[in-house]
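ok new one. same drill as before - structure tokens go in, u give me an amino acid for every spot. 505 of them this time. try not to just spam alanines like last time pls lmao
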């Protein structure tokens, strides 16, 4: 209850519980932690957007609760040689506009991900050199090198297939009314209010879809989100807080599901993206090292989350075979931090701004960090922003530091390359080191797990210990709370809500 009481004491205004909609037996209302950004798989970045896409846009492949890659729009795959992937496609699949999903549509979507200006998928599948239609149900994908990571990229937005007719007609406005081949079709979106989808009756697996309608409701305030669940105004809440587990423990109308996530919470630094990088913090790794040594990850985790999460110094969790056990968080050392600032020759206090998503627990994390780094000689200013707006600002370089999480992927490349490589589509701080790029590219194509793990270990030593380009804080738990009337929900560590089999009793 700690954060709830803190928020009330600070005068945080709570949103009133939403008025229940007219009774619809199979209408599921989901409380999202933020409002998604654009609903275009090629251009989107947000975690909550991925949740909406699970309703709208099927992928070539998916992952199951055991983190196995399984076919979705595909029926299977085989490697013709180490650089050539053959994918066979499901028959009888239609897009929401009635068009047929076939090999030509797959090639069209992958080409769009590779070539559309501003695509965040380009870096994920940049290893593709050619796409070929073998026949209506078969696609051949040629790669520039063998890849340990490529198939896993097709289990997320890079593997989402869009209606070519709709994509060509809408261009960059596709996200205003997305047309894919998922179990639900788009109905409406009201920014900061709701996204509504309804059952697509021509869905290829329609027998597994029992919900008639799903409404996604962005409710950033933690207290408002739990209040809406307790009142029955929503039936499902994603990424709830550890405090909420205790709050609903004796509520027989609600169920709690917890699963370790694949990603992390961290702090991104602007080291080379525009004028906001031209500060002592952005220019000098010693200043960034001092900042990190002033922070106690375990203490923040205890204060804000009751010790529920796992402190970390890297992008992949301990459950991942590519987690480097020897690469652990450095202990807090205020004396060393002050010494580093003195060696850097900077005037004290060193002023730094931190962009923080405008939700309750992350604002509190920012405030604890603010107090910690003050002891070392930093004046940390907090800039709380709506999450999608903060992402857009960071892309433009309008930040100095950004308290930012990543939901994670099965393969470590999905947690690292796009954020660390100089050509990475989500490297908003514009960090660049040729040796780090070389190691990341080599890790992408290295098929031996031990050699690949060693490449990541070398990369972390340079990018995090030498260059200090960002800071990883902890690995979270995905906590979901839903009505006891909901059956058929299968939790998966990526945190997505897969609707097959779900129904409201």
């Amino acid at each position: 209850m700690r954060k709830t009481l803190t928020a009330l004491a600070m005068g945080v205004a709570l949103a009133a519980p939403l008025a229940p909609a007219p009774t619809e037996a199979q209408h599921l209302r989901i409380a999202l932690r933020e409002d998604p950004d654009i609903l275009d798989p090629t251009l989107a970045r947000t975690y909550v957007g991925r949740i909406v896409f699970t309703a709208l846009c099927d992928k070539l492949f998916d992952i199951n609760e055991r983190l196995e890659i399984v076919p979705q729009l595909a029926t299977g795959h085989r490697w013709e040689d180490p650089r050539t992937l053959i994918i066979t496609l499901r028959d009888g699949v239609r897009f929401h506009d009635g068009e047929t999903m076939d090999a030509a549509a797959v090639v069209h979507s992958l080409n769009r991900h590779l070539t559309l200006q501003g695509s965040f998928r380009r870096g994920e599948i940049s290893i593709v050199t050619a796409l070929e239609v073998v026949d209506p149900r078969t696609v051949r994908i040629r790669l520039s090198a063998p890849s340990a990571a490529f198939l896993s990229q097709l289990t997320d937005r890079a593997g989402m297939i869009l209606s070519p007719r709709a994509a060509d007609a809408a261009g960059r406005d596709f996200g205003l009314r997305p047309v894919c081949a998922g179990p639900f079709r788009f109905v409406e979106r009201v920014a900061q209010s709701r996204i509504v989808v309804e059952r697509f009756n021509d869905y290829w697996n329609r027998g597994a879809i029992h919900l008639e309608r799903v409404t996604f409701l962005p409710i950033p305030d933690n207290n408002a989100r739990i209040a809406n669940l307790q009142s029955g105004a929503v039936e499902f809440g994603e990424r709830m807080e550890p405090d909420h587990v205790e709050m609903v423990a004796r509520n027989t109308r609600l169920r709690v599901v917890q699963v370790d996530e694949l990603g992390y919470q961290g702090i991104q630094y602007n080291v080379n993206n525009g004028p906001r990088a031209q500060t002592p913090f952005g220019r000098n790794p010693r200043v960034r090292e001092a900042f990190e040594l002033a922070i106690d990850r375990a203490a923040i985790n205890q204060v804000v989350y009751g010790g529920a999460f796992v402190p970390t110094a890297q992008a992949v969790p301990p459950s991942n075979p590519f987690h480097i056990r020897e690469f652990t968080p450095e202990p807090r050392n205020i004396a060393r931090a002050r010494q580093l600032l003195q060696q850097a020759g900077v005037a004290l206090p060193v002023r730094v701004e931190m962009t923080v998503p405008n939700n309750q627990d992350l604002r509190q994390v920012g405030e604890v960090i603010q107090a910690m780094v003050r002891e070392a000689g930093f004046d940390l200013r907090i800039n709380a922003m709506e999450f999608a707006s903060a992402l857009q600002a960071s892309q433009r370089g309008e930040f100095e530091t950004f308290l930012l999480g990543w939901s994670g992927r099965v393969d470590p490349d999905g947690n690292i390359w796009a954020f660390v490589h100089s050509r990475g589509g989500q490297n908003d701080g514009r960090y660049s080191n040729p040796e780090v790029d070389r190691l990341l590219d080599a890790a992408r194509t290295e098929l031996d797990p031990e050699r690949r793990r060693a490449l990541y270990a070398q990369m972390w030593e340079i990018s995090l210990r030498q260059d200090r380009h960002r800071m990883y804080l902890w690995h979270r738990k995905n906590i979901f709370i839903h009505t006891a009337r909901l059956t058929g929900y299968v939790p998966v560590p990526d945190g997505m809500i897969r609707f097959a089999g779900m129904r409201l009793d």
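The longest strand covers residues 74-81. and btw Residues 24-57+182-261+478-504 form a domain with the D-Maltodextrin-Binding Protein; domain 2 fold (CATH 3.40.190.10).
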